Amino acid sequence: MFAQIGVFLVETVSGFFVLMLLARFHFQWLRVPFRNPAGEFVLATTSWMVVPVRRFVPGLAGLDLAGLLLGWLAQALGLWAQAAIVGAEPGALTIAAIALVDLLRYSLYILVFAVIVQAVLSWVNPHTPLAPVFDTLTRPFLRPLRRFVPLLGNVDLTPLILLVVLQVLLFPVGALRVAAATL
């Protein structure tokens, strides 16, 4: 019972920071402005880690490699702590590989979340201050679909199609995670 509680707490804390670091990476990659409540929250929760690491890990073509590296390290550390709690001894290569696959999996989860929130906001309150954030996050992924899928009765089905595509992508990513665990 205590091991389960420990694993849950480690997974929750490490997962939170990994998601925030990945959100920071994706915000910068997709050029989402940080001058909004979501961006300010992401900056407030990650700057204390990212800013010192940037002295050693520079960005590349506008990508925040320091944040991405810290996300990978946080996930690897979280996996190692969970394994230590349950008494498992996976190798460093296994933990590193699983953590890398988890970054891809969490990135897909972030996109799923953004699509759902963007769709709900477009129905409920399209003029909320967060609407441009989620629109900017999802637009590069929805734009190619909108070329091929017309509006049906003024209803945009592309978020639904993108959600199905993302769910399908999560299956091979899950299989890749299982394969990485056997290293």
The helix-and-strand class reads mainly alpha
Main beta sheet? none
Average per-residue pLDDT, rounded, comes to 94
Would you count the extended β strands for me?
Answer: 0
Helix coverage percent: over 70%
Question: What is the domain total for the residues?
Answer: 1
Strand content: under 5%
* Amino- and carboxy-terminal Cα gap: 28 Å
Low-pLDDT regions: none
Question: Describe it for me?
Answer:
The protein is an all-alpha fold and 183 residues long. It has one domain. Helices cover 78% and strands 0% of the residues. The protein is built from six helices and no strands. The radius of gyration is 18 Å and the shape is globular. The relative contact order is 0.12. The mean pLDDT is 94.
